[in-house]
Amino acid sequence: MYYYMYYKTYQYWIYNITALTMNKNTVTAQNKQERRMLHKIVFLLLTMIATESYGATNGAASSAAANNPNPQQQLEDDYRKITTLAYHELANTALYKLPQADLNTLISEINHADETNNSERAIVLLAANMGVIQKNINAKELQNLTAVILKYHAAGIAEDIIDLASKQGDRYSLAKENFEFAKYEAKLNHWDNTITWLKKIDIVNELSKDNGDEAYIIYGAALQYKKKHREALTYYAHVKQDSAFYSIAQLDSALAYIRQDWWTDAQITIEQALSTATKDDIEIVNRLYTILGFSQLQQGFYRNARESFRNVKIKSAYANRALFGVGMAALNQEDFVGALNAFNQLKNHTENDMSVAQAYLLASFTLTKLKQSTTASASYAEAIGYYEQKTNFYDNLLNEIKSDNLANQPLLINKINADIQKEEPELSLLGEKLTILNTLKEHSLAPNTLLQINKLYGNIFLAFLSKANDVISKKQLAFNSYLNQSRFGLTRLYDTNN
């Protein structure tokens, strides 16, 4: 299930929190400055949460990068061309011949391969049995098979199905195949391509209700990435209250309002979505409450914001952000005990999460507001140790990336993925492709095909390292800032007490 999220990483903004208390002689001005800074942090957090990358569970690269035809589009084209060549070669072996050349057997075999995460077998089974596909080109089950192989980035094989559907299928079969390609391109953040595929479809007349509603949401997401927020709202409006996608449409509408600074409309829309959400919308509800909470913070409704954040479930992917929001709301209310409790809870979490990381600095800052100098000093020392550990880790990782000794590529890829892959879905995508190419290299393919695979692997690996270097450098910048602020806070605390 997908919805619009515009990727903007708030964690890389530098928050000079401790510097706010420098002027001892202007308490009123200091408090106003602190409040303005907290307000800015809230706004940045809201922007990030309200507008992340498209796809709640899949994500993608930033739209500017994804739509750049050079060199990323070239790399994508090369991957599609070379892997398709390899799959077609493998399809000629007896290993992928069906015991019975019928659609049900093919579906069963591909589904089994998919369930066991055998992506290669799922793809090559379809490529080897295109005759079965041709005989059943209008079967409704083909849409699911296309979805499976696109999940494994076998777009070239999926295009073979599109070609058959365009020549021999009816309009409805072709529309469903086009729709699957639109979804796939959206996951890659190829928004121009997404719109091109969607324009080939008569959404009202050629797709089922559920597919049609999802198509409207994808269309709206594509328009929002192109900053056409008002036009996007017209597509979300097509999704009615009886739809399984209604909550997502409402959420995306709220985000469109937020991107235009229409806060009241956004809150009304979120509340409407919450009132109609079903038990299947648990994580959407968690995200709605998180967005609503930061929206209320932005507008100064701190008590309401805390209540919204408390509705986010503990096991939600948004739990840490919501807890951070509770702390920020409490700071704005000058409820320093409540703020400290929230930040201390975050510090006890082990996730590699920027909300957790920021909590170390904010907990120390909050203790200074409580005038607990001894505890604040210990807290700053703890924060310094935490940030030093992080900066050392990223220093070493950056050195490994820049090193000429890249013999142990899988180990480096795993180390990078373990730390930042979830935050950067583009790295996840590149990593998946590297894994697929590694598997293809193990087969006895034609020498020229293997040569192309090895060259492509090298190019994608370099793209992976380049993206990882950019992301880690930004994280390093953030952690160095937090480290410096913690050191400054500790020094200032020492000077004040002496």
Question: What does this protein structure show overall?
Answer:
It is globular, with a radius of gyration of 26 Å. It is built from 24 helices and no strands. α17 (302-310) packs antiparallel against α18 (319-332). The chain is 73% helix and 0% strand. The protein is mainly alpha-helical. The model is unreliable at 1-28 and 50-68 (pLDDT under 50).
Describe the protein's topology.
Blueprint: H1 27-50, H2 63-66, H3 69-91, H4 103-115, H5 119-128, H6 130-135, H7 142-151, H8 155-168, H9 171-187, H10 191-199, H11 203-206, H12 209-225, H13 229-236, H14 246-259, H15 263-276, H16 282-298, H17 302-310, H18 319-332, H19 336-347, H20 354-369, H21 373-402, H22 409-420, H23 425-440, H24 447-497
Helix pairs in contact: 1-16, 1-18, 3-5, 3-24, 4-5, 7-9, 8-9, 9-10, 9-12, 10-12, 12-13, 12-14, 13-14, 14-15, 14-16, 15-16, 16-17, 16-18, 17-18, 18-19, 18-20, 19-20, 20-21, 20-24, 21-24, 23-24
